[in-house]
Amino acid sequence: MKTLLYRASVIAFAGALAIGCAAAPRGGSYGSGDPSLGAPNPGGGAVDPFLVDGQAVLHALDAIADRSGRPLRITSIQADRGNGLTVDVQEPKNHVDVDRYVVAVDGTLSGPEPVKLMSLDGGPITAASVDRQAFDPAKIDFARLTQTAKDAIAKSHFDDARVSEWEIDGVTPDDKRYIYLEASRGRPVAIVKPDLTIADMRY
Fold it and tell me: What is the pTM of this model?
């Protein structure tokens, strides 16, 4: 059975955004967010392109792999409307270690920042346990993300629903794969399969 791990940043998330920034292009290098599908940025800035644009996600994963090394295997990937795209990456040369990379809404890439892993069952963290959790992000059909966002909004039955966040922790049936929506009268959640088709909706 897969050992469940949870993560805590060694350095506060705000600090992670400020440390290790690359000279990545700014001003929409990953495209513009779609306000008809993505929720507004709470800071008043641009809509996060990673919320609903799978090509932006794939482009960012390539940029992360250029920095982290290949093959790219991750333990978690998520997007939210304020911070951009956050990816926890297993180090290719030292499998027990996981680093966090963040691609901000403006395209700036920060990381690596060490991620502390802790076992839910109290056992030791080993390279084998991280191997069991890590997965190839190519197994997620990010090219379908825009259509998935449209489907989730339609199934939510809220005309004003927008994608505010999503998180994917793996490709097995037990792993979390959620797309969170926000609407004036609710916060529905789409549970998705690795191919990003919707398995269920929760309200």
Answer: 0.85
